[in-house]
Design brief:
Chain lengths: 286, 806
């Protein structure tokens, strides 16, 4: 469990980091909290000659709560997501989800940027960001561009980010009044990735659902946001039939695979339970 | 003067002797990060070893090319079987009478097997060099199923002994067969089964798991070429046995080998065996003339060191209509992996599996165990019970439940009517043991009352109604267990390991000022020996436990002993401690009599002193006596005050307990929530109640892990599927329920202080209690048996098969 040797770089601005990435091509990788990358290096599944540590780049830090948008720097740790009072008030679902990631030790170091950029279908933040309709700000040598979280994930570990680009911030629209939320996750133990997880947001006005968003984690090789699930709820009072329709729509969108957590039929069954709990939880809080 | 005015209670309390919840003296250094583990050892010029391991479970090794590795700056040597062969060290004996490859000799038999040993200037270079060793393999058909291993056309795994049909434990009937071990009366048992009112039959599988101690295995070998002395520090649960084995296999004279077990971060049996890493490090140090350190990483520990269990136990239990058990039959297929590397006493190739009649008065029984080779890691030694008592307890406690289902009886009542009665002890079991003592009915009734058993059953009945009415998706299970252990191996007449009798030892020296040092043949790995053994001495000779240093683990200073595993330290070394202390007390009595100018018989021991009978104001304290031992010329007595005892126990001890677990089982998610767990332990005399409680909590948490998810799983290709802590379940505080502990005290009649050992009881009794709770939840819906681990998907699958998903 000892990684191969590598050069360690510690730039203080994004442009220098991108410069180093450009110079070394696929020999180089940025490291944020290291809690996905370093295990891979220790297992020698990732062999990198250059590691670019992002922790001294001030521009990647901080949480800003704007009137319309919440902006989270890529290097914000999962621990900060839990303890930031303004964020917990503006988007409480982030705290609820972050608390279900791994354990405190991982969360002290693991960052939100690393979590969403990594492309691991087991990570919880990508599904959450799809649920929240977040936008990723990505910088490269040619400047900066934005990609919707819902368009970012292509397959396991493959994303819309180019190798020499850095994800700098995550922009999340604030939610209308009357929005309930829930993040539900089943795992085998503390420190485990999800057997099935689901984030749900439901906006109710005068007893009727006006907006809804449902996204799932670790049930396909990418996070899955189900437009149909939301549509099944909008315009209804979110009674049992509507919830059942939303669950069915969600289940139609996933494609789980067998692993040590269990066979496909089991995962589908659990997903049905978890998705229903998430939607019902969000409705109850709306 | 103070000595004269203190009350007996104050004097007694000041000793912190037996029965005192004395704080662990070890914890000061452990909680401050000041422990001294093997990886803390730093020696000048020390080199590091690391293994090239097989990615395949069964393959021929065609060639090994170490050129590129040797070319890497900082690499000192690369050892292969070819280098060890001239020394005769490419194979080594196992503690079970088999032999095991140190480095792959022509083929590999399990994934993770040691193929080459790289020695480098630091561990980073060693790890890089491991990657550079090129090994060419030719894959062979893999056998992971022990039943398939015994099929006529199964591939032969152990070509080294192919065709040799006489094994270490009798005849072999197949090239992949290791031994058959039979106990009890086969014909009589089968006759009972044929005529019984009721026979319940079931296959009970206890899956393969691993103890996963926090500290992995490792060693530092240092051969001093000037003195010819080899010093070996390591994570050894049996340092003296390691010294003897090292002498036997290396040819180095035993007096030139010093084995030291420093602090050990948990063993649980994982650190009893001798591993290739030790042999390669010793050879490495001899070859390079420098100390060589080898420390496993977590994956290596899980993949290649001693696993636990992997027993397929087919059982038949016969009873009358009323539920009186009339006979028990068991056939076990034991998966030992590629080599039989168990550490059972020689005459017991399946350990003490013949304790499988449990707590019950079963007139006739038969047990047969077939050991089998497969393409899995070797071992079978480990996990808070080396001697298969866990398997036996799980087997009988499941069979009782299976019988209760068949009889449509309450499982608590079925146990009660079959318990061995208190007046039957010492009790001769049908499979050959003499249970020393017990009072099962008292313990059982106390346990049932404590948990309000009738109330729980009523609640469960209501829950079933609610479930059927669609009001809940959670079932409730009540897991019962009454286990009987057999520990303290053991009488030298029938227990030895590699010919070494399983006695143990203690040497005590009292210093002139009345403090003392005691050294034992055992070695603590977390059990708190330095705390509890000092308490035994304190009570036996009346000097405060705080004034006694306890030392273990250095073979140059400690008396010979067989080490710590199988809950044997208290039953055997604890007895030796009491006996050595009594020798000292006997001499102290003579010294006191001399000082008091009375006859030896006219003084008697009183807490911390000898007093003249009938004249309590005339006494000599142990402190005074100790000083006198060093400054008086006492006629007929040698100066000094010390003693040593080698204790050969007359019998095993038989701790027992009653455990009751209440669980809520979610039929949709498969999650099992432990609502409560009550554990009553009877370990005889209780030396330190706080340490007992700690041992019980730890063992129950291991039991929880085993029952609910912890396993070493292999795919059909022999790949380990659970080789990291992501997939191998190690519970954290979050998963750990609250435990309620309780006790009864039935002292062992043959042990000097009546103590029986407790370290393994919670693992032995805990697993069936957790497992039975899960089974019990599904019993009303027709479940008889579902194999552990009861992780989410398997529990879900059980519910699914029973049609509970609508
Ligand atoms: C035991 C354990 C359990 C875990 N359980 C969970 C869990 O339940 N749920 C969960 O969501 N996560 C879990 N994780 C993962 C954890 O949350 C990681 O911290 C996270 O996935 C990655 O964040 P990081 O900052 O550590 O990224 P790193 O490991 O440093 O990087 C991960 C990848 O992202 C890239 N990257 C990082 N930052 C950027 C950036 N700004 N721009 C571009 N690329 C970047 C890196 O190059 C690398 O390829 C677990 C981790 C461990 C060790």
């Amino acid at each position: 469990m000892i990684p191969a040797g590598f050069e360690y770089h510690r730039p203080t601005d994004v442009a220098s980091a991108i410069e180093i990435l450009k110079t070394h091509g696929d020999e180089a990788r940025v490291v944020a909290g290291g809690h996905s990358l370093i295990p891979m290096m220790k297992l020698r599944m990732a062999d990198l000659a250059h590691l670019i540590d992002l922790q001294d780049i001030e521009g990647l830090k901080g949480i800003e709560i704007g009137a319309e948008t919440v902006s989270i720097g890529a290097m914000v740790t999962q621990h900060e997501l839990i303890t930031h009072a303004g964020l917990s008030e503006a988007l409480p679902i982030i705290r609820e989800a972050a608390l279900q990631i791994a354990d405190p030790q991982v969360r002290y170091l693991g960052t939100v940027g690393g979590n969403v950029a990594n492309g691991d279908p087991g990570n919880d933040m990508p599904g959450l960001m799809q649920c929240l309709d977040a936008t990723y700000v990505i910088e490269g040598a040619e400047g900066s561009r934005t990609v919707s979280a819902r368009d970012f994930y292509q397959s396991a570990y493959f994303t819309a980010r180019e190798d020499d680009e850095i994800l700098t911030r995550i922009e999340i629209p604030r939610l209308p009044a009357g929005t309930g939320y829930a993040y539900e996750k089943q795992k085998r133990k503390i420190g485990d990735y999800a057997t099935a997880a689901c984030g749900a947001l439901v906006t109710m006005q005068g007893g009727t659902c006006t907006a809804a968003s449902v996204a799932m984690t670790n049930l396909s090789d990418t996070p899955v946001w189900s437009e149909e699930a939301g549509a099944a709820l909008v315009g209804t009072s979110c009674g049992p039939d509507a919830v059942a329709a939303a669950v069915a729509a969600s289940l139609a969108a996933i494609n789980p695979t067998q692993d040590n957590r269990g066979p496909v039929e089991f995962k589908r069954h659990v997903a049905g339970v978890i998705i229903r709990r998430a939607i019902e939880g969000a409705v109850a809080r709306a | 003067m103070k000595d004269a005015v203190d009350t007996p209670e104050t004097r007694s309390a000041g000793l912190k002797g037996m029965g005192c919840a004395r704080k662990r003296v070890e914890d000061v250094r452990f909680t401050q990060g000041k422990g001294n583990y093997v990886d803390d050892i730093q020696l000048d010029g020390m080199l590091f070893g690391d293994f090239v391991r097989s990615p395949y479970a069964h393959a021929r090794v065609i060639s090994i090319n170490a050129e590129a590795a040797l070319a890497l700056p900082g690499v000192v040597a690369v050892l292969t079987a070819a280098d060890l062969a001239p020394l005769g060290l490419h194979w080594m004996p196992t503690l079970a009478g088999d032999k095991q490859m140190v480095l792959a000799d022509g083929k590999v038999l399990f994934q993770g097997q040691e193929v080459a040993y790289v020695i480098a200037e630091d561990r980073y270079i060693a790890a890089d060099a491991v990657e550079l060793v090129e090994v060419e393999y030719e894959e062979l058909p893999v056998v992971v199923d022990p039943f398939k291993a015994l099929e006529p056309d199964a591939p032969i795994l152990r070509e080294d002994i192919a065709g040799n049909m006489e094994g270490a434990h009798g005849p072999r009937r197949h090239d992949n067969h290791i031994f058959t071990w039979e106990q009890g009366d086969k014909d009589a048992t089968e006759a009972v089964l044929a005529e019984a009112d009721v026979v319940a039959e079931e296959m009970i599988y206890y899956h393969r798991t691993h103890p996963c101690p926090l500290e992995t295995c490792g060693c530092v070998a240092s051969m001093d070429k000037v003195t010819g002395k080899l010093t070996l520090w390591g994570t050894f649960q049996a340092p003296h046995a390691v010294r003897t084995v090292a002498a036997l296999i290396s040819g180095i004279a035993e007096h030139n080998i010093r084995v030291i077990s420093p602090d050990i971060g948990g063993g649980f049996g994982n650190k009893v065996g001798v591993y290739p890493g030790y042999v390669c490090s010793i050879v490495g140090s001899i070859v390079t003339g420098k100390p060589v350190k080898w420390i496993e990483d977590r994956m290596e520990n899980l993949m290649s060191t001693a696993f636990a269990r992997d027993y397929w136990m087919r059982g038949k239990i016969a009873a009358t209509k009323e539920g009186k058990i009339t006979g028990l039959w068991c056939h076990t297929t034991a998966d030992h992996g590629g080599f039989d590397a168990c550490a059972d006493p020689t005459k017991f190739p399946a350990g003490f599996m013949n304790i499988c009649t449990g707590s019950y008065d079963i007139p006739v029984a038969y047990l047969a165990v077939d050991g089998v080779y497969t393409n899995k890691a070797p071992g079978g030694v480990a996990y808070r019970c080396s001697f298969r008592v866990t398997e036996a307890a799980y087997f009988i406690e499941r069979m009782i439940e299976v019988l209760a289902i068949k009889l449509n009886m309450d499982a608590a009542e079925l146990r009660r009517i079959n318990f061995i009665r208190a007046d039957q002890f010492p009790y001769q079991s049908a499979l050959g043991w003499e249970y020393d003592s017990g009072d099962y009915h008292t313990a059982w009734d106390k346990a049932l009352k404590a948990v309000d058993y009738a109330g729980l059953r009523a609640e469960q009945a209501q829950r079933i109604e609610d479930f059927k009415a669609g009001k809940t998706r959670k079932l409730m299970g009540i897991g019962l267990t009454h286990f009987t252990e057999i520990v303290g191996a053991g009488p030298v007449k029938n227990c030895d390991i590699l010919g070494l009798g399983m006695f143990d030892s203690c040497e005590i020296r009292i210093h002139p000022t009345g403090s003392a040092i005691a050294r034992l043949g055992t070695i603590s790995q977390g059990q708190g020996h330095a705390t509890t053994f000092a308490q035994i001495i304190a009570s036996e000779i009346g000097i405060p436990a705080d004034d006694i240093t306890l030392e273990e683990g250095d073979t140059d200073t400690a008396p010979y002993g067989l080490g710590t595993y199988g809950s044997r330290s208290t039953p055997v070394a604890g007895a030796a401690t009491a006996m050595a202390a009594r020798k000292i007390r006997a001499k102290a009595q003579m010294i006191a009599a001399y000082l008091l100018e009375v006859h030896d018989d006219d003084v008697e021991f009183d807490i911390d002193r000898f007093v003249v009978k009938g004249a309590p104001e005339r006494f000599k304290t142990m402190k005074e006596i100790a000083f006198a031992a060093y400054n008086q010329a006492i006629p007929g007595l040698e100066p000094g005050l010390e003693a040593v005892s080698y204790y050969d126990p007359p019998n095993m001890t038989y701790p027992f307990g009653a455990y009751i677990c209440v669980a809520d089982v979610d039929v949709d998610t498969g999650e099992v929530g432990i609502r409560s767990f009550y554990a009553l332990d009877d370990c005889g005399t209780r030396i330190n109640p706080m340490i007992i409680e700690g041992q019980v909590h730890g063992g129950l948490t291991e039991a929880l892990a085993i029952a609910l998810g912890q396993e070493i799983a292999y795919d059909d290709m022999g790949n380990v599927k659970t080789g990291t802590l992501m997939d191998f379940f190690l519970p954290t505080a979050w998963e750990t329920p609250n435990y309620t502990t309780d006790h009864t005290v039935t002292p062992s009649p043959h042990h000097p202080i009546g103590a029986k050992g407790v370290g393994e009881s919670p693992n032995v009794g805990g697993v069936p209690a957790f497992s039975n709770a899960v089974h019990d939840a599904f019993r009303p819906f027709g479940l008889t048996q579902s194999h552990m681990p009861h992780d989410h998907w398997r529990v879900w699958q059980t519910a699914n098969k029973l049609g509970l998903h609508g």
